[in-house]
Fold this protein.
Amino acid sequence: MMWLWMTITLFMTVPAFGARKAKECGNVKKLQLILSAHGSNIANEETTRTPEGGAYKRQVVKCRKKCKIETREDYLHMYEPDHPDSDANGYVLYPNIEPADEINKFIAAINKLELMAKHGKCGLSHAVATKGFVIKYKKGLIKEDHFILPDSMLITGWRRTLKNGNDNLLSFSNF
C-alpha cells in the first residue's frame, strides 16, 4: 500500500516539475530586463540632464502578456538655485529613484540568474572571471553579462555583451 502511494505521488508531481521549469526558463528574459532597468536606474540616480532633454526617467519592468521596460516621469524637486539645470524658481528635477530598492532588485535578479547558470538551467552557463563572474546565454540577443567584483562581494560594474558584438558598461560608485 505504501509503495503504491509513493508511485502515484511521484507520477503526479512530474507534470508540475515540467511546468515549473518552463516558467523558470521564461523568467530569463524578465530577469534580463530587470538587470537593464534597475542597472540603468542605479547609474542615473542623479542625472538631471539627458540627450533627450530633461532629467532621467526611471525605468520599471512591467509584465502583462509580455515583459517590457516602461519609463516613469516622476521626479523629486530639489531647491538648488546655483545648479546649471535649475528652473527659474531655483528647482532641479531629479529622477525619483530609491537607490537601496534599485540595488536590492538588481542583486536579486543577479542571484536568480547566477543560480540558474550554475546549475546549467535554461541554456545558461556560469564562469568565474578574474575579478567577478560571467553568465552566458545560449538564446536571445544577449551573449553574456559580466559582473565585476574587484576585492569583495560588492559589485562595482557590469558589462553586457550582445551577440552582435556591442558592449555596454555600467560602473557603480554607490554600491
User: Anything to note?
Assistant: The first helix runs from residue 2 to 43. The chain has one domain: 28-171. The two ends are 57 Å apart (CA to CA). Residues 83 and 92 are 7 Å apart (CA to CA).
